[in-house]
Amino acid sequence: MENNIDFKDLWKKQSISQPSINELLAKLKHFKKTSLRRLILTNAMLIATCVLILLIWYYYQPQFLSTKIGIVLNVAIMAIYLLVYNRLFDAYKELDNTDSNAEYLQKLIAIKTKQKFLQSKMLSIYFVVLGLGTCLYMYEYASMMSFLWGFFVYAVLLFWMGFVWFYLRPRQIVKENSKIDTLIDTFQRINNQLEADV
């Protein structure tokens, strides 16, 4: 029995099919396209929300200082979030079809690092400031209601914020991370294979 086994030759003869580079580039292109679309949609929605909030301030002239502080906090945190979130735009744009596998991998890892910062620190700050701003904004209008209705309004508001924070946010994070993790894992495997062949 011969003990010289050529593992590289056996690896090449495997029946398990590796994803073709065209499939992988198509997945990468789809990831880039959907990410850019989500970025543009987020920009449009937050800018429209800021404009609406400022129009409400202009037309309804709130009397309480708390309402004005709430409006400023909400608009400011949305603008800050957009400034940080838009840093991903350049990272997505850099993903093109002329790079090597190692460069794709580095760029995907850089995007994942930026996403992680957004999903942890930035989103936490965003929700805390937005919640505080919204509570301050609602105080003037809740004070015009009976105690029971004011309590109900704040209970619904806090329930909604809790639902978004504890249910919707984690699901969205898992969804975004799974997409990029799959791409990173695939490029990592191909990169390791290419390095082993050299």
Shape: elongated
The helix/strand class is mainly alpha
What multimeric state do the chains show?
single chain
Q: In total, how many beta strands?
A: 0
Strand residue content: under 5%
Give the structure's gist in a few sentences.
The chain has 198 residues and is mainly alpha-helical.
Written account of the structure:
This protein is mainly α and 198 residues long. The protein has one domain. 85% of the residues lie in helices and 0% in strands. The chain is built from 6 helices and no strands. It has helices spanning 7-12, 21-60, 65-85, 87-93, 101-143, 147-197. The radius of gyration is 24 Å and the shape is elongated. The mean pLDDT is 85. Keywords: Membrane, Transmembrane, Transmembrane helix. The chain crosses the membrane at residues 39-59, 65-84, 122-139, 145-168.
